[in-house]
Amino acid sequence: MLLKSSLIRAVSQTKGVITRGYKAKAKKIPEFTQDRYQVSRKSFAAVTDSDVSQFEKTIGSKYVVTDSEELLTHNVDFLKAVRGNSKVVLKPGSTEELSQIMKYCYEKNLAVCPQGGNTGLVGGSVPVFDEIVISLNRMNKIHSIDEMTGIAVADSGVILENLEKSANEHGLVVPLDLGAKASCHIGGNVSTNAGGLRVIRYGSLHGSVLGVESVLANGTVLDLMSNFKKDNTGYHLKHMFIGSEGTLGIISKLAILCPPAPRAFHVAFVGLPSFDAVLQTYLSAKRQLGEILSSCEMMDKDALAAAIQHFGLKPPIGDFPFYMLLETSGSNGDHDMEKFTSFVDHGMETGNILDGVVTGEPSKINEIWKCRELSAMAIVSRDGFSFNYDFSLPLRQFYEMVPVMKERCQPLAHRVCGFGHLGDCNLHLSVCFPEYSQEAYDLVEPFVYEYVSKLKGSFSSEHGLGFFKSKYLHYSKNNEAISLMKDVKNLMDPKGILNPYKVLPLK
Amino acid sequence: MLLKSSLIRAVSQTKGVITRGYKAKAKKIPEFTQDRYQVSRKSFAAVTDSDVSQFEKTIGSKYVVTDSEELLTHNVDFLKAVRGNSKVVLKPGSTEELSQIMKYCYEKNLAVCPQGGNTGLVGGSVPVFDEIVISLNRMNKIHSIDEMTGIAVADSGVILENLEKSANEHGLVVPLDLGAKASCHIGGNVSTNAGGLRVIRYGSLHGSVLGVESVLANGTVLDLMSNFKKDNTGYHLKHMFIGSEGTLGIISKLAILCPPAPRAFHVAFVGLPSFDAVLQTYLSAKRQLGEILSSCEMMDKDALAAAIQHFGLKPPIGDFPFYMLLETSGSNGDHDMEKFTSFVDHGMETGNILDGVVTGEPSKINEIWKCRELSAMAIVSRDGFSFNYDFSLPLRQFYEMVPVMKERCQPLAHRVCGFGHLGDCNLHLSVCFPEYSQEAYDLVEPFVYEYVSKLKGSFSSEHGLGFFKSKYLHYSKNNEAISLMKDVKNLMDPKGILNPYKVLPLK
Asked: Which of A166, A189, B112, B503 has the fewest CB atoms inside 10 Å of its own CB, making it the most exposed?
C-alpha cells in the first residue's frame, strides 16, 4: 500500500535552534537552598583545610577545586532552582581514587554529593548544604565496545552522546536517548534510571545494564560487572544502584547492552481530533508497527504553541487539538516505510488521523523531532514560571489531568498543557504562570500529587526524586515500602553521608 | 529475494512425543538429602501437632497436607535428585492467608520452603530437612489482562501456559517461554528469574516485571505492585525478589508487561561446518533479522544425536557438525519471510550455512522445535547419568569447553555435548556417563566451575543456585558481593526461615 500523496510534503524548516545540548535561558542564580527551604543540616563534619590537603595528596591539587567561580557551576543545578554551598569539588580520576576519597569521608563523617553531568531536574545532583561534590567528569573512558556481543563497558563519567557515537562506529546504538545527551553522563543516567525516548523499544535500564561497579559509602569497591544478559548466581544487587540516585553507592563503571544500529529510521508527525483518537492510534501503532516502533510521543496544541511562540517554530502540519510523533527503526527501510504508510492510511480512513507527514530523510526527521523537543524547552525555559511534572498514569486517564488543571488554574495560568512519552504512559504536565506566586503554587500543589495518587499513578516517572520530590514519596509508595527503603539505606550507608537530603523523606 | 528451492522441503515427522509439559523418565525416589549430603540442620523449631492445628484454623484443614503420599510429591524435585523430609504442606488461598502463615512461622521459628510448580533443576524448590512446604498452587487467579497497556496481573501460582493462553486471547504474549511451561508457575519463574527461549527478543524478567507483591519473613505484605514501565519514586525494591529464589520473601502476586502477539512466526533449522560459522551466522542474524529475531539456539551434532537415539527423532536435514535453530516473529509475514530467506541465502553464499529449512507453517515449526527440545530431554533423562550445566560464557569462548571436556572425560564419558541459547551467551554443557561414579564426578567437578571462572563466565545462567549450586557462588561472585548478599538476607530475614540452605553458601 502506498502513502496517500496528500501526506507527502516538505517538512517546514526551523533554523538556528539547537535542540540537543541546549542551555536553559539565562536565569538568575537562585538563593541558597538552605535559606529558601526549611531543611536542617545533619550533623556531618565540615570540611577543614586539613581535609583539603589530604584530598590534594590523594588525587592531586589540580583536581581539588576550591575556586569560587568554578564551585558555583557545581553548586547550582541545570534549572537554576537550587543552590548548594559546597566549599570543595573533588574530581577523582579512577575508581581507586574515588574509593580512597570515600574511605576518608566515611572515617571523617563528611557528606558527599556525587555529580554527573548535572542535568537532573529534581535538584538531586547538587549539594543542599556544604556536602563535598564528587564530580565524575574525569572518569570518562570507554573501555570497550564489542560489536559481536553488543556490550559496551564505560566509566561512569562518559557523556551519553560520546558513548552513542562510539557505539555507532561499531554498528550499535545505546538503548537510551534523551534531550540532555550532550551533557549528561551515562553513570548519572544509570544512577537515576533515566528514561527518555527509546524506552518503548529497548525497555528500561534495569534490562539494558548488565553490570555496575560501585564505590560504597565506606570506600569499598563493589564489583558487580558482568558481560552477560543472564547470570543467576545470587541476588541481583546491581539493581540497588540503578535509580537510587547516588544514595546507596557511587557508580564508577558499568556494562550496557547495545542493540544493533537500525538501518532505517522513519518518522511521522500527525494531527488528531481528540485524545481518544490518540489512544486508538497508539493501539494501532503497537499492532501494525510492533517490533519497529521506537518512539510514540504525543503533545497537545498548547504544548506545540509554546514552541511556535518562543522559538518561531513552523510546524509541518496545520492546527489540530492533538499531535503525535511516531518513529520507527528497523533493518529494512522498504519494509518499514510500507508498514508505516499502511498504518497512517489506516488512521486516516478511520478518522483518527486528520493530517500528517511521514519521512525517512534524516534532515526532515530532525526537523520533526524539533517540534517535540522545542515544545518541552519552550515551556520549561521561556514561558514565565512553569510548574512541570513527570507522571506515569494509566493510559485511559493519561490526559485527564490537563483539562482538570485548566479548569482549576486558568485564567491565572496562561498555559496548561500536556506532552510526553505516551508509549510509556509518561505524561509531562506543565502549568505556566507569568511569574511565581504563592497563589499559583497553592493552586497546583499538592493538588496534582493527590490527583496522581488517586489515579494510582506515579508522580515521578523518569526524573527521580532528588531533593524536590522526596517529600512526596508517600503519594506513590506505601509505608512498608518506605520502611524497607530506609532499612536498605541504613544498611548500605549507616552514616547517611551519600547524597543526603535526597530520595528519602527528611522526616 | 526468494528462498533457494533446495532449501524448501518437507520437515520430517516425529510422532508420539510430547515436548511440552513432559515428564522425566521414571527414576527411583532419591534418598533423603539430609542423609546424602553433609548438611547440618539449623536450629529451627520442628512442627508440632499444635502448629498443624493452628494452620488448619488459618487456612482450613483441607489445605494442610500431612498425607505421606502427597507429601512425597512436594518433598522430591522434578529431577528426583533431592528429597526433603517435610511433614506438612500448606496451601494458602490468598495473600492474607500466606501472610498469617508467615507471621506464625516467624514467631515460632519454623522454617519454610516456598514451592511453585516444582520444576526447578537445582534443588531449590523442595525442603532440605523438615521445612514446611508452602505451595502456591491455589493462588492461581489471573486478575486482569489489559489489551491496551499489555499489563497482566496474576497470582504467583498461575501456571505459565495458562497465563500465555489468556494473554493470547487479548492479542498479547507472555515475554517468557520455556520447556516447563505446562507446570511451572509464573511466580516461580519470577522468583528464579527464569530465562528460556525469548530472552533475545523480550529481555529478562527484570525488564518485563512491572511490580510484585511479596510476603516477607515476618508476615508483612510488601505491596510493590505497579502498572507502569517507568516509576522512579524511590529504590527499585522489586528487583530484590526477582531471582532471589524465595529466600528474601514469597512473591504472591505480580504485574508483567506482555508485548503484542506477533502476527507471523518463521523458523529455520540450518547445518553448519564449524563453531566459527555458528558465530558468523549469529552476527549476520542480528544484523539482518534485527528486530524480528526471537530465538537463536545452537546445538552440536552429539546433542542432536541424543534425540535421534533415544526418541527416534528424524531431523529435517542431514549430518553436520553444528546446527542452529532461528526463529523470527513479527507483524508482517511477507516481510519476515523475505528477510529470513535473504539471511539464509547469504549464509549459504558465504559457506557458513551448508543446508537448512525455513518454514512458517505451525506444524512444521513445532517439528523443528522438537529437535531442540528433545535433544535436551534425551540428555537429561535418558542418556545414563548426565552432568548438566548452565553457563553464561563470552561468545568467542562459548564452545571452548566442549572439546576440552571431551579430551578430559572420554572414553569414560560416552557423550560430551553442548547446546543452548547462543543469542544469550547461554551454553548448556552435558557430560554423560553410563552411570554415576566418583571417578566421573572427579573428572567433571570442580574442573568445569574453575574453567568457567577462568573465562569470567557465570556458572548459573538461568537455572539459579538452589541447594546444589550455592556452594559454588565464589566462582562467579567476589567476597564483597557475597558479603552484601548476606547482609541483605540478614536484613530481610533475620531468623533465616525463608528457604534455608539455598542460594547463600552454608559456610
From this structure: A166
